[in-house]
Each structure stands twice: as C-alpha cells, then as structure tokens.
Amino acid sequence: MLCALSKLDEEKIETIKSAERKLGKTLLAFNCYEMAPETLTPEELAAVKEAERSLGIVLVAVKG
Hints:
single chain, two-stranded antiparallel ribbon, about 60 residues, 2 domains
C-alpha cells in the first residue's frame, strides 16, 4: 500500500480545520492505494537514489 497527501477542495479543508480546532491537534489527510513494490537491481537502485538526491524527493518503484 502506498499513501500520499490528499489534494483537497476548500470545503474539505474547512471540515478538517474545524476538526483541528475542536481537537486542538493538527490533522493530515492521506489517500492510500494498493500497489506492489518493484524489485530493483543494485544499479537501478543507485539511479533511483541519485534522482532522489537531485530532486529532493522520495521515489518508489512500483509494478505497473
């Protein structure tokens, strides 16, 4: 399973902000997807790591 921060419209954001005010806590919204990880060779893994360093993000190889 792979999860990412949700893209929300203003109505959903306001609902979350209301819940945060009631709870006194910060909430994060995620969407999750069923995915299987891909197996990488050491060379492929090195290329992914280099791309991550270059871009400043995390990449995940999944079976497509």
